[in-house]
Amino acid sequence: MKPETFSHTTVLLRESIDGLDIKPDGSYVDCTLGGGGHSQWICEALNENGVLVGIDQDDYALRYAKNRLEPYACQRYFVKSNFASLTKVLEGLHLSGIDGILYDLGVSSFQLDDDTRGFSYHNDGPLDMRMNQVADLTAEMVVNDYAPGELKKILFLYGEEKFASQIVKSIVKAREIKRIQTTLELSEIIKHAYPPKERFKEKHPSRKTFQAIRLEVNGELKILEDALIQGIAALKPGGRMCVITFHSLEDRVVKRLFKERANPCTCPPDFPQCVCGKKPEVKLISRKPISSGIDELEKNRRSRSAKLRIVEKLETES
Q1: Could you say which residues bind S-adenosyl-L-methionine here (predicted)?
Q2: Neighbour tally for 49: CB within 10 Å
Q3: Is 56 annotated as a binding residue?
């Protein structure tokens, strides 16, 4: 599929825009710009003094979003970078004190639908999976060059794949004959490594392995917590952060960090009052994750695993 034909359905759009509580003259960062779906609604709410910063690693996403957002009056900056470099991006734009930050994690629909990117196990394409297409590490290298123990660890930790041992054995056996180069080659190997009774029992047997390899290629979990910490630091008091996750590993990182920053006290529970002196940086706007409603689930299957968490920056004592 050629990228020019892609369509992108933005997940939890209204919920995340409401969560940002947008001020017309505020400054907002879309750390995962993608097709610009969330950013378009941010721009809709901003006046000519408002600022949008869109960050993405993908050149096509940046070009597409720039064209999509051209009609809007707000100031717009598009930066090719990873959200792990948020602080540097904002410093480079001479921006401080942001009113809202959005992270829509995972793979964009247009990346999944573009067979040449290698993210999908449904269609054939090269084993790539790079969000930044000039990065060195590819899925093909992970599958063919990683030691069996290292590959098993990735599948177990990043994919929570209970059949990791069987899958890795099958991958190693196949790559001894020739390098595994395409998504469907890998998907077939995974499918036949699964016990027959478990194949397609719930979801596609390749789902967890492809997720694990993608996370390894792009280092997503390694940079997530640091990126969120940078985001909290960049917020003004009263500024909001919205984070949309698509699997349990990401959501755990977000949930734990938000909980720690909202309730940092380390005093024993039986202490009558806090003596550790640690003050909360944020308050939880959504104590439980927000999920897609029935209408969205019916229209977009990819929204079924999406979870939105929201925090607001608190005023800190000087």
Answers
A1: 36-38, 56, 83, 104, 111
A2: 13
A3: yes
Instruction: Give 2's pLDDT tier (boundaries 50, 70, 90).
Output: very low
Overall number of domains in the chain: 2
Same domain as 270, residue 199: no
- With a cut of 90, say whether residue 111 has pLDDT above it: no
Q: Are residues 162 and 250 in the same domain?
A: no
Instruction: Write the pLDDT tens digit of every residue in 29-77.
Output: 999 999 899 999 999 999 999 999 999 998 989 999 999 999 999 999 9
Q: Which residue has the tokens 């016990």?
A: 195
Q: Is 104 annotated as a binding residue?
A: yes
36 is in an annotated binding site: yes
Domain shared by 138 and 202, yes or no: yes
On whether both 140 and 170 belong to a single domain, the answer is yes
Task: Report the residue count for the chain.
Answer: 318
| Rounded Cα gap, residues 53 and 89, in angstroms | 9
Q: 142 with 87, same domain?
A: no
83 annotated ligand binder: yes
Is the distance from CB of 36 to CB of 14 less than 8 angstroms?
A: no
- The residue-averaged pLDDT of 139-165 equals 97
Pairing state between β 235-245 and 307-313: antiparallel
Residue 119 annotated as lining a ligand binding site: no
DSSP string, the chain: --GGG-----TTHHHHHHHHT--TT-EEEESS-TTSHHHHHHHHH--TT-EEEEEES-HHHHHHHHHHTTT--SEEEEEES-GGGHHHHHHHTT--SEEEEEEE-S--HHHHH-GGG---SSS--BS---SSTT-S--HHHHHHHS-HHHHHHHHHHHH--TTHHHHHHHHHHHHHHS---BHHHHHHHHHHHS-GGGTTSSS-TTHHHHHHHHHHHHTHHHHHHHHHHHHHHHEEEEEEEEEEESSHHHHHHHHHHHHHHH----S-TT-SS--S----SEEES-SS-B---HHHHHH-GGGGG-EEEEEEEPPPP-
Domain that holds residue 96: 11-110+220-313
Residue 88 structure tokens? 């540097």
